[in-house]
């Protein structure tokens, strides 16, 4: 390894990247994101269902942007520059959010509780609001996972990297919990401007700490996006669609010359057509044995990489509607909490947005419980561990169960509303404790503890080594798509039914939850079919020696 590489990196950089920058970025980002629905409803007179729709779109953007950030980092700028630019963009977004909270000219007059008429924001107010949310979202989405990549690049030993990722996710969860409680409490009980100023300060400190540690970082040069290699296989296969396939290994281009590392040719399967991309034809190879036309010839290893991605797509797609109900429930739970009794004693009132902390705490607790006790005990009793697909499947079932609990709790809430004749009073507080929402949120956390680690581990182990960086992006991508699907689904139900009016106290949210139960059950059956057809490769075998690309 070059001296320049050995002199930089190491655990000292984690103080700057994880303890300083990541914690500050997450405190800042989740400080405004966790309370966004309440801010839109109370300060901008946005109807509760519309506010949840906006929040779902924002969550979708934040979870899709890491994919774009990873591509830019790998192809052009590197992880350090993407993280720095994203943190600065988030910094600008926080300035705009403070202005929307501080200046009365940038928001409509407050709406009285029980009033049927509330003044909507002007076009200018909407423009400033959406610009601030967009800027802050872009910064948060672009920096979060890029910091994970940069941090892992500072370490050499696989065990050290595993330790870093454990602390990375701990920092994310801890910062989210603090933001969703302490900062949200300041926003609700003191002032929005002060809460956003705290987020601004956290972002400023994070950026300053990150830049201060620059001289210690090991910054890898961009190597090009792995997505380009996958696209080259498709283009090359199409361009050679008339070439006859051969069964001889020497007719294909291999990255490795050693016999032990040569990728075997797939003789049958649904995607045998892709083998044409690796077929050697005249003019494809230079005199030195290298590829002369990269968009007409690929290695058999690259073809295998694309096969692996395609084989995982069905299981990956089942995760979209696994997370969609959670996205809907997480947003609507905040609007439900706004209409319920949130008093803890006579002097303390739980902020509505803090209700989501129940999911974070539940998920963190059960991840540790499963990892340290449940899974080892299961392996001792049965003689074999739970497979990754089994863990994901259990997560499916538990998420469906949480939707059923949500439907029953909402039915009770609506009955309480009818008994007290509150249907026609927008913003009225239902005489029902917010604790009723806790069971469904705890169950969601249990489901997340099963399926999220299971999905990450599945993609990491099943993807070829050259595509490992895409593994975490796959999870982020499915979460982002799920939030957009949830937005479209809620809007569709609003148009076709009268279940989701602006005043949720006169709606039928319970029917929405029962639809999610049905859709979740159907999605679980789809997952079972995909899991049955999919054959996991043995991750204990050497990747290069494994032929597992037959479908």
TrEMBL record:
Name its species.
Answer: Gossypium barbadense (Sea Island cotton)
Coiled-coil ranges (or none): none
Give the family from UniProt: Belongs to the major facilitator superfamily. Proton-dependent oligopeptide transporter (POT/PTR) (TC 2.A.17) family.
Q: Which UniProt keywords apply?
A: Membrane, Transmembrane, Transmembrane helix
For membrane topology, the record states: Multi-pass membrane protein
> Could you name the domain of life of the organism this protein comes from?
Eukaryota
Q: Name one GO molecular function term.
A: transmembrane transporter activity
Compartments annotated for it: namely:
Membrane
What are the record's GO terms for cellular component? membrane
Q: Fetch the Gene3D superfamilies from UniProt.
A: MFS general substrate transporter like domains (1.20.1250.20)
Name of this chain's protein: Protein NRT1/ PTR FAMILY 2.7-like
């Amino acid at each position: 390894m070059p001296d320049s590489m050995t002199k930089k990196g190491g655990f000292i950089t984690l103080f700057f990247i994880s303890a300083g920058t990541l914690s500050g970025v997450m405190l800042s980002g989740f400080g405004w994101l966790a309370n966004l629905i309440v801010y839109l409803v109370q300060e901008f007179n946005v109807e509760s269902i519309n506010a949840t729709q906006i929040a779902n779109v924002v969550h979708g953007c934040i979870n899709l942007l890491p994919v774009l950030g990873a591509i830019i980092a790998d192809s052009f700028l590197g992880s350090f520059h993407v993280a720095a630019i994203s943190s600065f963009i988030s910094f600008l977004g926080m300035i705009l959010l403070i202005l929307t909270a501080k200046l009365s000219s940038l928001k409509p007059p407050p709406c009285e509780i029980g009033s049927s008429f509330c003044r909507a924001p002007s076009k200018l107010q909407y423009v400033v609001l959406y610009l601030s949310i967009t800027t802050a979202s872009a910064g948060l989405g672009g920096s979060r996972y890029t910091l994970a990549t940069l941090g892992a690049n500072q370490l050499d030993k696989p065990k050290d990297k595993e330790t870093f990722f454990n602390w990375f996710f701990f920092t994310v969860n801890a910062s989210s919990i603090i933001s969703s409680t302490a900062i949200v409490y300041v926003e609700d009980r003191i002032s929005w401007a002060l809460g956003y100023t705290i987020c601004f300060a956290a972002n400023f400190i994070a950026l300053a700490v990150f830049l201060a540690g620059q001289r210690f970082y090991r910054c890898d040069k961009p190597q090009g996006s792995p997505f380009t290699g996958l696209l080259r296989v498709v283009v090359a296969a199409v361009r050679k669609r008339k070439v006859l396939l051969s069964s001889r290994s020497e007719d294909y281009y291999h990255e490795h010359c050693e016999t032990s590392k040569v990728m075997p040719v797939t003789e049958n399967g649904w995607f045998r057509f892709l083998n044409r991309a690796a077929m050697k034809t005249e003019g494809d190879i230079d005199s030195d044995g290298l590829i002369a036309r990269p968009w007409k010839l690929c290695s058999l290893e690259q073809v295998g990489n694309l096969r692996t991605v395609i084989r995982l797509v069905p299981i990956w797609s089942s995760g979209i509607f696994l997370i969609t109900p959670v996205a809907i429930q997480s947003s609507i739970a905040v609007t439900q909490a706004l209409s319920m009794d949130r008093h803890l004693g006579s002097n303390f009132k739980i902020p509505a947005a803090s209700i989501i902390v129940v999911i974070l705490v539940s998920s963190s607790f059960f991840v540790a419980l499963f990892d340290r006790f449940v899974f080892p005990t299961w392996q001792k009793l049965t003689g074999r561990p739970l497979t990754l697909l089994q863990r994901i499947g259990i997560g499916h079932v538990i998420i469906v169960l949480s939707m059923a609990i949500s439907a029953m709790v909402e039915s009770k809430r609506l009955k309480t509303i009818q008994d007290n004749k509150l249907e026609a009073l927008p913003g009225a507080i239902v005489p029902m404790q917010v604790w009723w929402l806790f069971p469904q949120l705890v169950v969601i956390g249990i489901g997340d503890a099963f399926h999220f680690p299971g999905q990450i581990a599945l993609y990491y182990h099943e993807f070829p080594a050259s595509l490992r960086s895409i593994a975490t992006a796959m999870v982020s991508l499915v979460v982002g798509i799920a939030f957009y699907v949830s937005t479209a689904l809620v809007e569709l139900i609003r148009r076709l039914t009268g279940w989701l009016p602006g005043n949720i106290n006169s709606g039928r949210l319970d029917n929405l939850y029962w639809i999610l139960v049905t859709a979740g059950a159907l999605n679980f059956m789809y997952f079972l079919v995909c899991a049955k057809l999919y054959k996991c490769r043995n991750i204990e075998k050497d990747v290069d020696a494994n032929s597992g690309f037959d479908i």
